[in-house]
Amino acid sequence: MAANKKPDNVVFNPETQKYDAALKPYATNVGAPYITATDSIAWKNRSINKINHKVQTKYSELKAEYEKMMQEFEYNNLIFAAKFTFEPIVGEIYHLYKKENEESFLSIIAPKECSFKSLGSFYLNADQIWEKI
């Protein structure tokens, strides 16, 4: 054994030439409590289930929002492709119809007051976007 080598039960750092038992993140003497590794599998499984549920929920919300936006786009596309000879007023309700020749047109006349095939009633909001009612 070398003359300057310390015994194994003495915590001595040869690089700094200091006793640093109090600085270690683990027990360094025989009387210290036994260190056991905690079982983190249950925590991991709970966390995985939580994040999977959160991602699935967010995906469902985004998918529903996307479908709503695409439906809104289709309605607006349908109305702007229709024939009308007036400037729609924001905040008013208009009705979309289809003639016998399959041509669609926008009107202020309600479906119960005419005999055309109704495609729906729409409201022009402040953002100039048509909403089906």
Low-confidence stretches are none
What is the structural class? alpha+beta
Radius of gyration: 37 Å
Helix-strand string: EEHEEEE
User: How many domain modules?
Assistant: 1
Keywords, please?
rod-shaped; 1 helix; alpha+beta; 133 residues; two-stranded antiparallel sheet
Question: What can you see in these coordinates?
Answer:
The chain has 133 residues and is α+β, with helices and mostly antiparallel strands. The chain has one domain. The protein contains one helix and six strands; from the N terminus they run ββαββββ. It has one helix at 41-81, and strands at 12-13, 18-19, 93-98, 104-107, 117-124, 130-132. The strands form two sheets. It has a four-stranded antiparallel β-sheet, covered by helices on one side. A two-stranded antiparallel ribbon has the order 1-2. A hairpin with a 4-residue loop joins strand 1 and strand 2. The mean pLDDT is 87.
How would you sum up this structure in a few lines?
With 133 residues, this protein is of the alpha+beta class. The chain contains 1 helix and 6 strands. β5 (117-124) and β6 (130-132) form a beta hairpin.
Q: What's the arrangement of secondary structure elements?
A:
Layout: E1 12-13, E2 18-19, H1 41-81, E3 93-98, E4 104-107, E5 117-124, E6 130-132
Antiparallel strand pairs: 1-2, 3-4, 3-5, 5-6
